[in-house]
Amino acid sequence: MKLLIVEDNLKLLDAITETLVAEKFLCETSANYPDAHEKIVMYNYDIMVIDINLPGGSGLDLIQEIKLQNPATGIIVISARNSLDNKLEGFDLGADDYLTKPFDMAELVARIKSLIRRRNFAGTSIVSFGDISIDTTRREVTANSQKIDLTKSEYDILLFFFSNPGRVLTRESIAEHIWGDNMDLADSFDFIYSHMKNLRKKITSTGCDDPIKAVYGVGYKFELA
Fold first, then answer.
1. Could you tell me if 151 and 159 are in contact, meaning their C-beta atoms sit under 8 angstroms apart?
2. Which superfamily does 2-120 belong to?
3. Location of each CATH 3.40.50.2300 domain in the chain
4. What is the DSSP letter of 184?
5. Which of 99, 117, 10, 88 is nearest to 50 (CA)?
6. Around 159, how many Cα atoms within 13 Å sit in the side-chain half-sphere?
């Protein structure tokens, strides 16, 4: 899962980022409105953690913009403001949750994981596709009742497919999901092919059919035969 954290308090921004990276999330950061606005126009994010008061603009305007660019993005507002009006305005614009500063990092992590389950997996932490299951809490994958060990990138790709069953995912979108902003530094998508090859090999080694279908010239689709 790829997150964008928008917070102008650099100490808090670093603390949030460090905590979420330790939880295996891919995190991008912004400390002001213009930078955050550029990122949400250029890239897609699964979840945004966003402050309301920002240098150069309002986090509420960013929420409105991200809902126009990518309505599926989950939004968690973090703010020192604790008035009902601000909460309601955030929810009206499409925010999913609201945390008042100061907050415990463990609570933020729990809110993010809960939001992922609600938005992508109907509230459950164990999701299945045919004979393949993912325990999103433990980050464990089983295929044909056998546990398979995946690298972080392989796991992230598989979870990305689970979140988009039957949809064609372009190589660009998969690369962005793994590398975030750094995908711009890649001179080819050969590493995507390598990850797909390894992921397929690990799944089929358990006796499962290969659920990853190549779509010529575009990318890949995850579906049962």
1. no
2. Response regulator (3.40.50.2300)
3. 2-120
4. G
5. 99
6. 29
Q: What is the number of residues in the chain?
A: 225
Residue 20 tokens, joined: 């979420």
196 contacts 153 by C-beta, under 8 angstroms? no
Looking at residue 196, the DSSP 8-state letter turns out to be H
CA distance readout (Å), 60 to 53, 56, 75, 92, 159: 9, 12, 11, 10, 29
Q: Which two tokens stand for residue 51?
A: 């402050």
* Domain with residues 126-222, CATH architecture: Orthogonal Bundle (1.10)
Coil vs helix vs strand at 38: helix
Nearest to 54 by CA among 29, 71, 72: 29
Range(s) within the chain of domains with CATH label 1.10.10.10 = 126-222
The pLDDT profile of the chain, 225 residues, written as one tens digit per residue, is: 789 999 999 999 999 999 999 988 989 999 999 999 999 988 889 899 999 889 999 999 999 898 888 888 999 999 876 655 666 777 787 888 888 888 999 999 988 988 887 776 666 778 888 899 999 878 899 999 999 999 988 998 998 898 887 888 888 888 877 777 655 555 567 788 888 999 999 999 999 999 999 888 888 998 876
Q: What is this structure's pTM?
A: 0.66
- Each residue of 25-34: b (16+ CB within 10 Å) or e? bbbbbbbebe
**Residue 58 β-bridge partners:** 53
